[in-house]
Amino acid sequence: MSVTETTPQTARRIRISPWSVGALAIAALVLAPIISVFGIALFPTDNIWPHLISTTLPRYLANTAILMIGVGLFSAMMGTGAAWLVSRYDFKARRWLEWLLLLPLAIPAYVGAYALVDFFEYAGPVQTAMRGVFGWETARDYWFPEVRSMGAAILVLSAALYPYVYLLARVAFREQSAASDEVALSLGAGAFGRFWRVGLPLARPAIVAGAAIAMMESVNDFGTVDYFAVQTLTTGIFSVWLQANNAGGAAQIASVVLILVVMLVAMEKLSRRKMRFFNLSTRHRPIERKVLSGAYSWGMMVVCALPFALGFLLPAGVITSHALDNTEHWRDADLWQAGINTLTVGGIAAVLTVLAAVFLVYGVRLSRARLPGLLMPITTIGYAAPGAVLGVGILIPLAALDNTVADAIWSATGWDPGLFMTGTAFALVLAYCVRFFAIGQGAADAAMGRVSPNLSAAARSLGRNQGQVLREIYYPLMRGSVGSALLLVFVDCVKELPATLLLRPFNYETLATRVHEQASLENLGGAAPPALLVSAVGLLAVGLLARAMR
Prior knowledge:
The structure is a single chain. The protein has 26 helices and two strands. Helix 4 runs parallel beside helix 8 (150-175), helix 9 crosses helix 10 (191-220) and helix 15 crosses helix 19. With 550 residues, the protein is an all-alpha fold.
């Protein structure tokens, strides 16, 4: 029998790195809920596909499609228009509006929905003022658009999500060269012609990418569509699971949502692939803003202020007014307990998410195997997956595992440990980590990419191991990016509603669920304090984003 000699090169090749194994384990954990959804949908305990297809699924799918298309179009129009004006013209308050247009990102869409209904409903200030001015006595004396409708849901979501388009379109417009604009001007193109024939085609990939993100967020939304009584696929998951008590049917609807999300992600990736700008001249000259005065300057200011007013001023003003008029709710112990719960689960999830992301990125960089590198981009799908879908993919298998472990411990020891995964905030923290893992991964990957490989090579030559290199070389240089990722993940955890509603333990409230609960009871005074706190946390992220864009 011959013995194969093991060379040092072979030993190095077969040695398993703990960093690679850890990276694979993290990637598997992030992808597990997505795979679980499809597994449950394909092999449900009670197959209701025929019932869904013949009854509610067409309505859910049609409403979701209308919502997505409407939000995509309106957010693209608002974001693109505002980006073009602030990039090409100088008018009154332009410098302020350039950053104020980002503020709707701080207000969750469901808060905007509650504020819009309160402002425009029959007992609200608008219709009350109309009846007072024109002498109308009842709703039969005049016509007013239906406030709780599909159109209102599209308007609210578009006002909350247009900054995604605005951010990308603004960068695309600013990167365009003055040469193309001058050529169009020499050919007789007016202001609208230069926008339609030159500026818009060059920025189209950025606009499509931003609109795709807004459409994905509209699919994820639950608070807005539920408050407006619009039945979408996301509300269908809640109805089939919580009301009909059919987890398999909920997973089947969730699989349809995931297919839509994958299509949107593919569209967004394709658009980003085309976001390439070639400067053929030897000297790139940015386009100088045209200075406007008089009525034109005021008109441009009003046009740019409208999205900001609808997406931020209106909801912030209504919520602040109710919070000041109902000060007794600030003394409610349940409010502050919800705040403590929010800080706890959001803080733990943010730390775990960023640590896992740093470990994954570092492990992939150290590994020479192809599998970790192929899995790393796929782990970002969690950010596109709606919270309700992740709730289905996490809670059903986790509950089965929880019960199995509890039964095994009971059989072995006679002690009932309870459900320590689904009966606590564990499942909620896990959902947050999966949902927002892409933020931490993107920040860690970008930060590590800026560190020269020579630094780590020098540290290794001085006897430092891989863990010491990460701690002593990489971490000091990427501390700012890690801190920003922690803040962004925490803010998104605070605002997340669908996953929190599905996965929170019994009688466990966060600020987001408290806003939803009080607003569902038509108690906007009670919903105002937690909504104001959620929005204040959102402002931190917007401030960080504005600072990074300077």
